[in-house]
């Protein structure tokens, strides 16, 4: 899967990506992240890969300091299927992350298995996929209050409650936007530097997404990431959800590139200042499936069969 997907990263208009560690098994050790980085870089030499570690009970302050020294590990993340319910057990880790400048990527929408019950004033309520994000938000506020200097990304924000929580936390808390069309108006209420695109490209083999017992969530978007964002904005304008005059070159460059890099504290890599992307209508259509050379791995892309803008890289 890595050999199939890594070379396609730049096709989506990205020369820098944040790599999640939720493999099978997950990336939990610094040495594993370094090895993973080496393999990815060989497959896509024109891309800068920002690595992360999986948050687990074995992670400690010493490992965080070691990760920071690598200069290629930028954060620690939970899994979208295994949220952290008791954050206090990781306070020493968060303290070390704050001190070393690493970013925490939280999946507030995660649901544990079996479902966990939170105590509420009116009784108890089981955590489900529909209420997990709002029920997690008190933990976000608690964490931010304890470590105000810790940069936090709240992944997969999909509710008004999540948006308001990020806004109340201040400039060290951000989130990547995927639900552009439905919530674009909410951007006006959040500091622009905290709005970043999140492709959340999740390639899964087709066998894991159909038939009895299929549980793999997520869509494969990376090879058309930028074009999908532009297409969503165009649809938003057509539907009246977005004002055309608000979609400027400056706002696009900030949302797609500058704001995220600024939040992660990253300047453009050497030699990258003279490149840009160009999108054109050429009748390109997203294929029905993306396959490895031997056909052993097949991945179904998001919005397969639909026309998409063609993307090319230019030097200037």
Automatic annotation (TrEMBL):
Superkingdom of source: Eukaryota
GO cellular component, one term: cytoplasm
PROSITE patterns: DIHYDROOROTASE_2
Keyword match Lyase: no
SUPFAM superfamilies: Metallo-dependent hydrolases
A single GO BP: pyrimidine nucleotide biosynthetic process
Gene3D superfamilies per the UniProt record, alphabetical: Metal-dependent hydrolases
Gene Ontology MF: a single term: dihydroorotase activity
Keywords associated with the record: Hydrolase, Metal-binding, Pyrimidine biosynthesis, Zinc
Protein name: Dihydroorotase
